[in-house]
Design brief:
The structure is a homohexamer of 307-residue chains.
Chain A (H helix, E strand, L loop, with lengths): L1 E3 L15 H7 L1 H4 L4 H14 L7 H30 L28 H4 L26 H24 L4 H29 L21 H6 L4 E3 L29 E3 L25 H14 L1
Parallel strand pairs in A: 2-3
């Protein structure tokens, strides 16, 4: 079972301008082969299909717990996409009833992924940066523990190069923050899968990290997270379960050489996270509606009833 | 953010025989257009892309909270698939090292979705009952609240007919239980979206329920859930959030006429749920490994370290 | 614009038994690369995209008119699929309210394309015999007249080998009739595109026909159509348009050597066709409903009002 | 069976400039999930698979007849796409033999959907505005009458928001006219499916209309159609069939409140429609040919023969 | 550039019976995510896209050379599929003109992947064992040498588990031989990519082999190849190029511990290979034709001319 | 079996500027329906599935041999794509360690197929010019010799119009050279399949050539190849096999009327070809690595060892 908390894993700054092609680039990290839908899909199905769970508890718990974090990554990138497509807050953004006969959506025709506007009103969907759909071919769940962990290690390394390149295309702080945060957390996951593989096979595969061979200290947006030690933490992302991860991530294992030093630690619960941005309405997109005032009133009454 | 609890939403009985084609039928409820990946994908992206959240809180909270339940549905169906593909527990199931030269996997050639065995060792993946992948075309997130809610209402009705038909193909209790539980919960979701639509539009669309026009009392597996009142409950699936749902689901709204009567209620947290079955290993599938004994030993030591 | 007539191009005999795998084989002729969705899709988009229509009228009219016939072919194969999946009429077939708790749909689990039952209640959809979707990769519309006509000629030859093979798998008369009729009409289309190419290029490409190199006289189901001269007729499938086809199909051109001799003729309107079979309801499939009696009554009243 | 008439449902003005990205936006209404291929595909297969047709005649006839109109919608959007990709008529447009060595097609490289030019010479194909293919996942045909009608109602509402957004991107009159006409006709279909649902379930779901909540009077291109009463008419699109629709659409039912008032009426046959634009040739695209003069001459002779 | 030699990499025994579901299982090794189209596609595009080739010659040459071997693997599996679908040679197999009216192809309806017969006459195509197409999502070419090599190492391990499972389904010697040979060669490739990674990163990742953890000595079909030392050889698969591979594969590196001991060696050219089986014609499949005698005669004359 | 030679079929000039949209256009010739992956896939699987090979040797050899040439075409287009995406050589291109925090990859956001950079670092993949994947629907292998040859003839004509249009978009010499070379070779293949069809059917289908109806003398980049007689040559692309092609291509058959006259000839081996360009590294793309100097050093040592 899964629970939801109405916060993002980290807070995203509001963009200073609408930036549809930046949003489109960010889609690579959402619905691409090495995006967050893929990390989610791989770990989720691997955890469902895991055999001999009780005898392989630390390994099962690692995969099962990271699954929960990955849903939050899908959420984070999606929020980034929607914010970049929406642009800065407008004081009168919630007002409806505009004139639609003068082609107010014309600029959307030239957005690289125009369907994001025509179909989704600027929202995120599970497609890559070329608009191709996420699908089952991006899920590996063989049931063999070594192959699945090795796949996951490779997946996180592959995800890292994608995040780095997407980061390098970004000028808006929203997108840069998404990449910066994910680079830190992705490094943790690559490290964790490497340690799991090392425990089983004896091969010190974590020595391949970081791949690509660039340290996080080159990326300004990563620094606050490194300073907090986020790169040394796995969260259990669970009220009571998955503490067996400590058999892999903890017990004297330490941060990677290129990162701020310190012991790895398994942290209870979830990170503090940040506020979810309240995306403003857009009457041109009929989102939430053309003239939403009445709907707002209804919602306000229902809200009061619910207290 | 999302958290994970190491339990299923309901406990599944262990199958009495391996039943690959039943598992394949169940895949329709996992990766089909009207399966749980679709309900998850629709509500997840709608909640991420929701505009004017703060002004439409009860509606946002409804979609956001059900998202969390749906991940658990994906988990439930996936467990059902993996259990039906694995068959009953075998006392010596965890022992490895069998002779693989005498075609021990021959029967898998005739399984309708043979790739489930050849590629996934009997595990679940996001495909439908014909083996076609789940994809973005099964996600609707227009950003318009009425259209999205209407879509969701239709989606839950469509999901119901799929569950009913899959149920009618099942002779193993594992698959029947999956369908029975999902039929009750799916009815709740259809009802909830209907009430949300009624609040906004004034149209009593819940009077279309149940669709198809058959009551849950015809399905033996639903009875214990109805007796407990599961059909009248929405769980918040959150430690602290989404209580605004009570503006829609509660406040004097009552169960559908064909179901046991009573008021609708919003319940804190999650259902008690049931144990996740410990799928036994299968050396033929090299899952978790051909001869996993050493791996078990390593895991056992790591487990002890984690305590 | 298009009009519809509530008849099939030829009447199909009711199957003597339910035959899901025959229906699945027939799907190749519906949604496969060389199926009727493809012939429809190719000619439809070619006719929409046709340039210099007024200067190339006979060629445009040929493609535009055959488009209309192809929709009817899609209809014919779809009816065949639905009939084979439904099986023979049952006297009490329309009665509803059956017990669904005893796995009445169990045999559908082993149907090759089980989703046809689980999702479509036995109905046809645009997929091939392996359940893969029809899509844009099966449409060629280059806008170059010679290439498009050459593609169409090849497409009809390819369609012919598919029809022949599907025919060879059929024991039920419904499926055999579908194939028999389509073989005759497909031969006409191959012949017509060949003549069109000959007019432009001077190459007597119709001498490649029939391909595969087997005459229709080997197929009992084709004989009544050959006797009627169906192989020599192009219908205009239009109230008033497309008579320019006579510049290509008529004017002394004659039947292929292996077929009954005679001049080719352009026929006004549509063939007489046959009755559409009234598929009986199936309460297990909730199609049209679990207990449709009330719905029948409503429909009956509305019907009377409409008179 | 289907017949074809060589006219469009409404006449489209010739664009004043070539506008490839407008054409790409229009593709959303052709091959997108809520585009005309989808409405066509849904109603076509639902009508083929309909059970108990004779007992549910008014409902069957509604779906069957609208199918025919939808093929014409596919035609209309396709013509719009091809016209916007072609641009204004050029006096010497039909002349061939130009110099191709100086990159005369260079601007096409930057067209959002460049394959429309490279592969289709500017023609339309069944893809959405991101170039992704239409496919079976966009077809719902469960065989349950309420679910299928509910799906169709939702589909038409979803189609409406897509049309509105695409309209808002358009500056060329060709594309605006396509959207304006389809908005009126789509509203009719949404209304019709709502009434059908109301007849069966008693739920006044037509009160949800219009969705999105904007009246057609905001759209200049709709006004002439509203003035003619096009929003109150269903055409039978058939020489003799489908008159039972009058049980649903007629009999005192009236126009939606936001539209010009009046009774709904079932009209025999088809609308008068407009001329299909004669797309000029483009030697750079080898469409219809590089130097088509000889081909024109041949066609001219064949045309004369056909008279 | 590539050259072709009219031999298979190893000779395949003719099946003793037609075995369509075995052929369908083998398709997983052809068009599945971990099949030979994928190994080919990955190495081919990586070699095309390789940057700094001249400075990274041994690594480039490794990937470039294995590409050539993989085309031969695609050929080998395809031959296996076609042979299993065709069955044993029949003395009169080449004669044509059979009666097709008595459903001679009926058994093909129940073949798991019936389209292989209906569309391809028993031939192989790039699909997996569920009939889903190979596609770009199965290609990783990031351009980063470590990530690409790591991907390839994981791909070969994943391919190994697929080969093992497919092998375990096989009772016909044709399919077993395909698997046996590929298991030996795939092990070589996994080993080679491991050594390449070790050279760059210093991580002894080859110690993870074999994965899954079963030695080739358990598989009778592998023994003759092990005895010949095939597991210690990389062929250059080139007349003159790629000798730099010896910097990785050779120079004192030795066979894996579970395999017969010995030094690794780079071999000039190609293996001796075996004869390509001369698949007999099948008149029912119109392959090569319904009555091919005349075609044989023509071919015979052309053959003589060519001498 | 296949061998590889480390040269391109023709040498490509280095582009004078980075031209991502030209690369994207060239992708149509790589992964489009009428691109080189398709010609490769068709002939490769047709040759694997060929029945009665020994009796139809000249036809088998033709298809089998051209397969080998087509892999080289895939290579040629891929090199062109990668070169256009990389742009001109930079003196310091191989140096690494650049500052990545100032959005050095920002222009890639606006590249039409941005994923080519984000995922592939500028490399080629099997997708078309809209980013849609190559797949099995682009492969025809019916096993009927006439249908397959006819398909291939149509495929080469279709490929020709695609090459011509892509050529017309190119201003960089790299892309123009790719198109120019492929136009000459594609014409040879169309001619060859036409002659094969003529031998079997007696139809002089080669008279349809060239299609589109423009001679190669209009394309400056083709002239040097025509002057060398490349349009009259089929290479065996094999050390010892496929000489039976001479029964079709030779023996008095001559060049097409619009091309420089002369006899057709079957040439041993492969064309001389040209150098593969040494694509420079790009630290921003982490390709081959962020700071590859150490990797270069390792490679250099391994290279020396291999001598």
């Amino acid at each position: 079972m899964f629970m939801r908390i109405d916060r993002l894993q980290t807070e995203l700054p509001v963009p200073k301008r609408q930036d549809p092609n930046a949003a489109a680039a960010l889609q690579e990290l959402l619905g691409g082969k090495y995006g967050e839908m893929s990390t989610l899909g791989n770990y989720m199905f691997q955890s469902f299909n895991f055999r001999s769970k009780s005898k392989l508890r630390p390994f099962y718990s690692l995969v099962a717990s990271i699954t929960a974090e990955e849903i939050g990554h899908v959420e984070l990138v999606s929020n980034g996409v929607a914010m970049l497509n929406a642009g800065p807050d407008k004081p009168d953004g919630e007002l409806g009833g505009q004139d639609i006969s003068d082609a107010p959506y014309e600029p959307m025709q030239d957005a690289r992924l125009a369907a994001a506007f025509l179909s989704n009103g600027g929202g995120a969907t599970p497609v890559n940066s070329n608009g191709a759909s996420w699908n089952v071919d991006m899920v590996t769940t063989t049931g063999n523990v070594v192959i699945d962990l090795l796949h996951n290690f490779h997946l996180e390394c592959g995800a890292r190069i994608h995040k780095l390149r997407v980061y390098e295309t970004m000028t808006e702080p929203t997108g840069r923050e998404v990449c910066g945060y994910l680079l830190v957390r992705g490094s943790v996951h690559a490290h964790a899968y490497a340690l799991a593989l090392k425990k089983i096979t004896g091969v010190a595969i974590e020595k391949m990290l970081p791949t690509p061979n660039i340290n996080l200290d080159k990326i300004p947006e990563c620094q606050k997270y490194l300073a907090e030690g986020v790169h040394r933490r796995l969260y259990r992302f669970s009220p009571d379960d998955y503490s067996e991860i400590a058999g892999i991530w903890a017990n004297g294992e330490v941060a990677l050489p290129g990162d701020p030093p310190g012991e790895l630690e398994l942290v209870d619960g979830v990170p503090e996270g940040g506020r979810i941005h309240d995306l403003m309405g857009d009457a041109r997109a009929f989102s939430p509606e053309y003239a939403p005032e009445e709907m707002f009133e209804i919602a306000s009454k229902l809200y009061k009833k619910s207290r």
